[in-house]
Amino acid sequence: MQSPTSHLLELSHGQISPQETLRRLPPLNRFSDIIWAVWNTVSTTTPARDLRYLAHDTVSNPDTKEIMKFVFNNRGPAKGAVKWPGLTFGMDQEEGLALLGTPNGLGTAWLLIDRARELGARVPRVTIFSPFPETGGSFRMVWDMRPV
To answer: What is the Cα–Cα distance from 126 to 141, expressed in whole angstroms?
Structure first.
């Protein structure tokens, strides 16, 4: 996979400078910008408002993983990570707010804030789980972003 800058330079066959390449790229500053760009590109037959789920397939951020471990240990039925369907929390629960405040959760929050006009008002719920809880390894997050 190439960066947008490398790809644009390759397509231009050296006809434009790296500085001009950067000027032509859209301002993608946050995770939420990238998610929106992808969704807006692939949802050509689906209205933007129909974005319902945002899945973090493998959470690798150490701060997010620590919060997830804490939640699993304090709310999981076996004091540890659980398989799907996992644990679900709303934003009216401390765990939901804690997960929203993680680096992974903030990307979802920024998407809803930055694109409120296109997506409409949303209040997310988050489900966390591990496909292999016995190994204590990978964690997943699925944000359910229902319209209000």
So the answer is: 7
Of 79, 77, 37, 55, the C-alpha closest to 128 is 55
Closest CA to 130 of 119, 118, 121, 138: 138
- DSSP sequence for 102-115: SHHHHHHHHHHHHT
Banded pLDDT at 28 (limits 50, 70, 90): low
pTM of the model: 0.76
CA pair distance 21, 132, nearest whole angstrom: 43
Among 14-18, 64-68, 114-118, which range has the highest average pLDDT? 64-68
CA-based R_g, the chain, Å: 18
Q: Are 35 and 106 in contact (CB under 8 A)?
A: no
